[in-house]
Amino acid sequence: MYVICHYAEIGLKGKNRKFFEEKLIENLKKSLVGLSCRKVQRISGRILIELDEKAKESKIKEALKNVFGVAHFSFAVSCEQEIEAIKKKSAEFLKSKKFETFRIETKRSEKDFPLTSQEVNEKVGEYILENLKVQNAKLGVDLKNPDITCFIEIVEKYVFLYLEKIKGQGGLPIGVSGKAISLLSGGIDSPVASFYGMRRGIRMVFLHFHTQEPEKIQSIQKQNSIEKTKKIIRTLNKYQFSSKFYLIPFLNIQKGIFQKTNPELGCILCRRFMFRIAEVLAEKEKAEALITGENIGQVASQTLVNIRVTEEAVNIPVLRPLIGMDKKDIIDKAKEIETFDTSILAEEFYCHEFLAKHPETKANLEKVKEEEKKLDVEKLIKEAIKKAKVEII
Ligand code: ATP
Ligand code: MG
After folding, report:
1. Pairing of the two strands 72-78 and 166-167
2. Which of 10, 177, 249, 267 has its CA 20 to 30 A from that of 111?
3. The ligand 1 atom nearest the CA atom of 302
4. Contact by Cβ (8 Å): 108, 158
5. pLDDT tens digits for 30-57?
6. Strand runs (DSSP E) across 116-220, as ranges?
7. Alpha-carbon torsion angle 292, 384, 232, 354, nearest 10
8. Exposed (0-12), middle (13-18) or buried (19+): which is 135, by Cβ within 10 Å?
9. How far is the CA of 294 from the centre of ligand 1 (A)?
10. Does position 214 have pLDDT exceeding 60, yes or no?
11. Which of 181, 189, 351 has the most ligand 1 atoms within 8 A of CB, as the residue to mutate?
């Protein structure tokens, strides 16, 4: 038994293609550890996985559904590359299946094979009609809307037969697009943003700012935001296998901001600090961008004006994969990737206590910079980074 993985080939040329395929194979191998797969190899335009007898289809299916770069995959049987063998194998393969109408769909990539795809379709179709009619009186060919399609792929020295194309995640293999720092809050949006970044081949380094003060943990943190974030990362690890996680204390910075500056600008100032710290870590990690779960809305930090004022604090690009999504779509996706239930666990970010009743929705950059002068920005950042904790999850 085999699994054939197909990837979208658009835009894959020369060196890019080789890099893509090597990463995809590496990631497939990681995802299949312990699932009785013998070999993972490239054959022209596909990745071929050889399964052991012990291999469990359901487990492999589950694993492959999380590997970015796979457009679709199929569990396949194989036979000798010779038309009589193909006919017999197809009949044998379809014999145990329940159907009345069928279609054969051949793809011949091996141009040395003497028959065209259409000729294979016709010969195999005829053979099946002749041989399976006895047990299935209503048997017939239907090219438009058959009960069952038998796909035949003739590629290199192989012939594969399969009935189902299982949809994969699509996207690009993790790692082909470099690294980014993902600002993970523990809320609903940022895990979904991370998912979309990972889906385009970006390896995430996660970063969470926490506001816990040991003696206040009980009263303030209904649910420890650190544990919550870690749980989310463990869930997202099904896409990137293991993750680096930075945990940065933020309470001092927040206190400084709310004690010394105009509370209406508190949110923006906090976010400028978060971005600056993330930028320092990006440098350290050789990451190319920051990723946030921001969206365009009318709430304090997420108006277009405020996004501009926040981003002005850094030079690194800030990617916001959720920019075009409605909240409902984000929630649906969070459920699908299984981060939702953790994200909605009760939690309070300490800054809620100080939050202005009417945070500025149209911050003025000059005013923000004026307020910031009241703080020792460099020192606060250095201190926070010094206290950073790093973990591999
Ligand atoms: P989320 O659902 O991701 O928490 P949100 O809609 O609650 O987002 P904000 O709280 O304004 O919006 O946060 C916007 C983004 O800023 C988050 O998606 C995340 O990327 C980042 N962020 C906010 N708080 C933190 C934090 N404590 N640690 C790390 N990143 C954070
Ligand atoms: Mg939030």
Report:
1. antiparallel
2. 10
3. 11
4. no
5. 999 988 888 999 998 899 999 988 888 9
6. 140-141, 148-155, 158-162, 166-167, 179-183, 203-210
7. -70
8. exposed
9. 7
10. no
11. 189
Q: How confident is the model at residue 361 (pLDDT cuts 50, 70, 90)?
A: confident
Can you list the pairs that 95-99 forms with residues at least 24 positions away whose Cβ atoms lie under 8 Å?
95/132, 95/135, 97/148, 97/163, 99/136, 99/146, 99/147, 99/148
* pLDDT tens-digit map of 295-310: 988 666 688 989 999 9
Tokens of 320: 């916001």
Res 97 pLDDT > 50: yes
Query: What tokens appear for 216 in the block?
Result: 């206040």
Closest residue CA from atom 20 of ligand 1: 292
Burial of 377 (0-12, 13-18, 19+ CB in 10 A): middle
263 Cβ contact list (under 8 Å, min separation 6): 354, 355, 356
Q: Which domains does the chain have, with CATH numbers?
A: 2-167 (3.30.2130.30), 179-392 (3.40.50.620)
The structure's pTM equals: 0.91
